């Protein structure tokens, strides 16, 4: 589990599917096992609170983005307690929304990392991708249809260089600058040999 404080009232949690399994849940359980999921979120909130020094109170908006083959990214936003509940200490209300993405999109802070990862992706047979630039980040959308063993290789390689992204290809096409529309890995490897 990775934690990142975004602002005074917001933090992010990233869990891989292996992290979920270690906690006794599967991806399918997120949609069906409500008591188990509630306990998972409860435990994660307090673990994040301890590690980030984030005081949990009031209403928490929990947005869960399930990322294909990568895990899930959870964005937690805290809203101040309302006057109705001030007398109740330790009151936490969680509003949870789940969203699942079928796209494989990763974000990079430096184009040099895209060059490095492209050489490694080419070695494992993944060449079809698109590359975008938006909001000071580079994004790589993997367009190759992957077999399960390729997916595992992809996740291993990408975790060294990039972060999974919840930005959609629709948003990247609309607001991002297209650097490579398709076949990005092959092109990058030939330009930056």
Automatic annotation (TrEMBL):
One of its GO terms (molecular function) is protein-macromolecule adaptor activity. It comes from the Bacteria. InterPro entries: MecA_C_sf, Neg-reg_MecA. Keywords: Competence, Sporulation. One of its GO terms (biological process) is negative regulation of establishment of competence for transformation. The keyword Secreted does not apply. Pfam families: MecA. Belongs to the MecA family. Homodimer. The N-terminal domain has binding sites for ComK and probably for unfolded/aggregated proteins; the C-terminal domain interacts with ClpC. Enables the recognition and targeting of unfolded and aggregated proteins to the ClpC protease or to other proteins involved in proteolysis. Acts negatively in the development of competence by binding ComK and recruiting it to the ClpCP protease. When overexpressed, inhibits sporulation. Also involved in Spx degradation by ClpC. PANTHER family: ADAPTER PROTEIN MECA, ADAPTER PROTEIN MECA 2. This is Adapter protein MecA. The gene is mecA.
